[in-house]
Amino acid sequence: MILTVAGGVAFAVASPMALDAIYRWVAMLINPGEQDNLGYSGANSPITQLAFGVLGLVAGAGLARTFVLVGDKVAEWWVTMDTGERVTLFLGTFAGIITSMPFLLLLNSLNLGIYIPLAVIGLTLGFSALSVYALNSMAEILPWYKGSTRRGRRGLRILDTNVLIDGRIYDLARTGFLEGQLYVPGFVLDELQYIADSHDPLRRQRGRRGLDILRHLEADFPLEVRIHDRLAPDLNDGVDSRLVRLAKALGADIITNDFNLNRVASIQAVRVLSINDLAMAMRANVMPKEGLYLHIVREGNQPGQGIGYLEDGTMVVVDGGKEFLGTDVDVTVTQVIQTERGKMIFAEIDFQSAHDGEPDNRKNDDPELARKRGDIRKRTQSYGKGF
């Protein structure tokens, strides 16, 4: 609004004067000998001033919108810069101004008239850009770039709501494998608080667990909250869409376990780090004919089957395992099937291991486990006689 009014006033005052000057200049070119009798241009009439005032209002409105858009872009660009790049920009601009001064003095002596301001701006910008480029080319040896990612905010990791509720992000950060700056948007924190205030006891418990994880992360690791949210304003398009827009604006990665968010972000060229995918990739590889030792926890879907689990949560379907429900047994892997949700392992009871003595790696087990294995051997001996 201020720029619009200022544009109208400036056009109403300055434009008639400029138009009158142009009229007199053209008249002198046409009739050089009649400089004192050029006539009246009509530029200072009230109608002309009113017309230029209206034109100024329109132009001021356009300039106001342009200034706002440019300001937002500059702010976004500034946020995506790391500290080293900001220092380089300041030093490069200062060096460009200092370097251009001798040339500006030379231009001033040439008496270029109205072209001097253009020459000043051009030389200053040119030398500043050259200085910034030169400093960037020496980034590897400059002290203010030490520890910098040199890729804007590419080291930033944005945390989603479900990954905070999941809780494994804290354990992952403690191992040191998670590099970069962690960031929690304000709208993610608001959603977490909303879940923690839910009337549903289960949802309330999940929300409070997420807030606890967030508090531990903030206490033990460098964590930023809310400071970049203005780059993804609320457009009533949901938390997931804002996360993607914010990640694109910052050049950051999203850490989430949400399958749908993963797909949407991938389509928009935003990298997603999934803790579920990481856990699946870190599971131990099991090969057919490999021996396992596990606890049969329940019956399988097929007659005689038992179900056990490895330490990483991989399900093992044991043929004949129903007979050993609630006990620890040796099994031999017969088949490994890879599915979208992970691996499914099929195995059978290893009766040979059950007949053998105590393996070396189990001699230090507690007496309760030894007693259970003794019961298993007795049962496998009678169970295996029919084979």
From TrEMBL:
PROSITE patterns from the UniProt entry: TRAM
All residue ranges annotated as the TRAM domain in the record: 285-346
SMART domains (alphabetical): PINc (SM00670)
Gene3D superfamilies: 5'-nuclease (3.40.50.1010)
Keyword annotations: Hydrolase, Magnesium, Membrane, Nuclease, Transmembrane, Transmembrane helix
MF term (GO), any: nuclease activity
Renumbered residue ranges of the record's region Disordered: 354-387
Spans traversing the lipid bilayer: 47-68, 89-108, 114-135
InterPro entries: Nucleic_acid_metab_PIN/TRAM, PIN-like_dom_sf, PIN_dom, TRAM_dom
Needed cofactors: Mg(2+)
Entry superkingdom: Bacteria
Pfam families the UniProt entry points to: PIN, TRAM
Stretches with biased composition (Basic and acidic residues): 354-373
Stated name of the protein: PIN domain containing superfamily integral membrane protein
